[in-house]
Design a protein that fits this description.
This is Ubiquitin-conjugating enzyme E2 W. The protein is 24% helix and 14% strand. With 152 residues, it is α+β, with helices and mostly antiparallel strands. A four-stranded antiparallel β-sheet has the order 1-2-3-4, with helices on one face. The N and C termini lie far apart (42 Å).
Amino acid sequence: MSGAMQKRLQKELMAIQKDSPPGVKVNFNNIHNNLTQWIIDLDGARESLYDGEHFQLQFTFSPQYPFESPEVTFIGPNIPVHPHVYSNGHICLSILTDDWSPALSVQSVCLSIVSMLSSCRDKKRPPDNALYVRTCSKNPKKTRWFFHDDSV
């Protein structure tokens, strides 16, 4: 890991620890000395369809971070049922691919995911969930996403 990447990740870790968004908490049991993979505990926002539910996000940082987006997936036994979340934990969210900017951070990604979940009106999987899960790469960053919402 480069010194610049390590410095950036340490800064982000301190920032999210000091001022984490509501319902977002770094799981320090999984970070140890390896800053390249984080587990974030995420609670569903109050008064949303996910109120009272608990999720985990895994962030994996490549050596090109922050110039390249982290790989972010839901992990564990509770993957949210959502039109932009596949049953394998892959998340269809533009800031994780084409709309990534080095100005974004773990904190801003978490806020975007909480917002995405909070705005959900109907708990359902993406229309192509079964096919996608059967044929996709293990790394969601290798997916060429089709944003179903864009076709409306």
